[in-house]
Backbone:
């Protein structure tokens, strides 16, 4: 029986050790298998899971567009601060597609043509905004007029050109709703294009990109997107470069900033990054609205649709002026903090871009206009949530606001009666999130197996350790019991020997008893 117990103890000990060894040695091969699969699938190459969703994104992208209506037109034209009403959102579904995709011989780059268009989502608009429609008329700053004045003041234009533009400004027809410093039009026309005599004149002298005024362009009619290829790294050979631009619409430089590094087009389109993201790593994107590359910074661990992810945000320092961030001198950040000067990128029109509702901007900018609410980080911040294993963005909001600067000039004096300020014109909240179907697929194909490996590893390690300890202590008990029994047997033998030595019969005793044990001494003649 003792031998059987000892065999069981040894078997238990060996079983625990085997579980520990197999678990510890088997974990890395399983992880390597999953990681190798991720490396293959995140490359932007035909046959990968990523390729089809990259070429024709299945995740709907919605643009919530807001306009800022000047509600005190007469007072604004006479020099008072603008009172602004943010109207919207007007919701558009953004359809994106990569066309004519070709690859380099080593498969490291993909060349394609961007195609995108916007479809108005009336139902979603009415759900979020029951007050305003595309046909409603609004007042915004007279952008063509301000652009014309800026051209006259800052460019070396021929006197004849200056005279033509000034005559057009002075002849602006107030009766048609084009009051001096404000432009009146329907939401539809202001967003997508309206005739304007000043824009037509600027275009004729090659001082504007179009004879019409519009705040938005539809990608289906964008000549750069349709005729100039975009080149992007596929991640083949270098996973950290996946979806990073090499050329954007035929260019590798924006050409409007003050240094080569600032002009260089770098970063991804913002929908995916390299796999195996670490919190210390920045997420670099190229934003065509900012005309620059920019680093998003890690903020916190969070989750979306029950998928753990890292939240990255547009950091405050990215738009700070040179007083706080000297590096931004290359972006002409000499004035107010929280604003990016797009003047040189926008044909010398004094346009500035900021976070929505002037979030993180100088208080003086916010105080020079009256708005319905102040900035709110939850509602106005730009962020992306990145699933760290794949580097895929599962939720995000890109929130930007375009503002025009009204300043006093010495040459014409046309704007000198208007209150100097930055007037918001348009704000766009571009957002997209993983669909429930894709979220379920990601959880079942990646997160659950990884979870089973991670938690199963520690469960098996704990189980192996417990079984090993049970076997070890069981064996110790058996050995201890064995020696304890041996000592008891030895003591018993010694005691028995001592007892026997005390009870050994003497000759006299043999003489005192007969075979029946009876005392025979009385029969002896003892003298």
Residues:
């Amino acid at each position: 029986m003792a031998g059987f117990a000892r065999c069981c103890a040894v078997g238990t000990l060996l079983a625990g050790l085997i579980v520990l060894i197999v678990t510890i040695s088997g974990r890395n091969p399983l992880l390597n298998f999953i990681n190798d699969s991720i490396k293959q699938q995140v490359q932007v190459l035909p046959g990968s899971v990523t390729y089809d969703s990259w070429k024709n994104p299945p995740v709907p992208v919605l643009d919530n567009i807001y306009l800022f209506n000047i509600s005190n037109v007469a007072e604004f034209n006479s020099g008072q601060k603008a009172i602004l009403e943010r109207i919207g959102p007007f919701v558009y579904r953004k359809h994106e597609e990569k066309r004519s995709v070709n690859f380099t011989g080593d498969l490291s780059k993909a060349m394609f043509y961007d195609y995108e268009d916007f479809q108005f989502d009336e139902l979603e608009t009415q759900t979020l905004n029951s007050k305003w429609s595309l046909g409603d008329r609004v007042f915004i700053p007279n952008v063509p007029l301000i652009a014309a004045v800026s051209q006259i003041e800052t460019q070396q234009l021929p006197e004849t050109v200056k005279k033509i533009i000034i005559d057009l400004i002075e002849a602006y027809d107030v009766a048609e709703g084009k009051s001096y410093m404000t432009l009146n039009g329907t939401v539809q026309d202001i967003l997508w294009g309206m005739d304007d005599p000043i824009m037509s004149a600027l275009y004729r002298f090659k001082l504007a990109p179009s004879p019409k005024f519009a705040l938005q362009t539809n990608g289906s009619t964008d000549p750069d997107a349709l005729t100039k290829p975009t080149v992007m790294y596929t991640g083949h050979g270098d996973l950290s470069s996946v979806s990073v631009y090499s050329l954007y619409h035929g260019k590798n430089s924006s050409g409007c900033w003050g240094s080569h590094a600032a002009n260089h087009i770098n970063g991804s389109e913002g929908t995916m990054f390299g796999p195996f993201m670490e919190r210390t790593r920045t997420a670099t994107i190229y934003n065509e609205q900012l005309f620059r590359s920019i680093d998003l910074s890690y903020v916190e661990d969070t989750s979306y649709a029950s998928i753990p992810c890292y939240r990255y945000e547009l950091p405050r320092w990215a738009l700070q002026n040179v007083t706080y961030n000297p590096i931004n001198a290359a972006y002409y950040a000499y004035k107010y903090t929280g604003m990016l000067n797009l003047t040189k990128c926008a044909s010398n029109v004094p346009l500035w871009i900021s976070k929505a509702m002037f979030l993180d901007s100088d208080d003086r900018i916010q105080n020079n206009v009256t708005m319905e609410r102040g900035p709110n980080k939850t509602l106005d911040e730009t962020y992306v949530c990145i699933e760290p294993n794949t580097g895929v963005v599962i939720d995000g909001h890109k929130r930007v606001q375009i503002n025009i600067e009204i300043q006093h000039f010495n040459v014409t004096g046309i704007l000198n009666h208007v209150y100097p300020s930055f007037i918001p014109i348009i704000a766009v909240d571009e957002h997209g999130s993983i669909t429930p179907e894709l979220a379920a697929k990601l959880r079942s194909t990646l997160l659950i197996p990884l979870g089973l490996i991670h938690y199963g590893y520690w469960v098996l390690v704990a189980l192996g350790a417990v079984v090993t300890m049970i076997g070890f202590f069981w064996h110790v008990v058996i050995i201890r019991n064995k020696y304890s029994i041996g000592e008891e047997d030895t003591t018993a033998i010694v005691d028995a020997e001592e007892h026997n030595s005390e009870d050994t019969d003497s000759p006299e005793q043999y003489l005192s008893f007969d075979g029946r044990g009876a005392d025979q001494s009385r029969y002896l003649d003892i003298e």
About this structure: The chain is about 35% helix and 25% strand. Residues 173-178, 507-527 have pLDDT under 50 and may be disordered. The CA atoms of residues 355 and 400 lie 5 Å apart. The first strand starts at residue 61 and ends at 70.
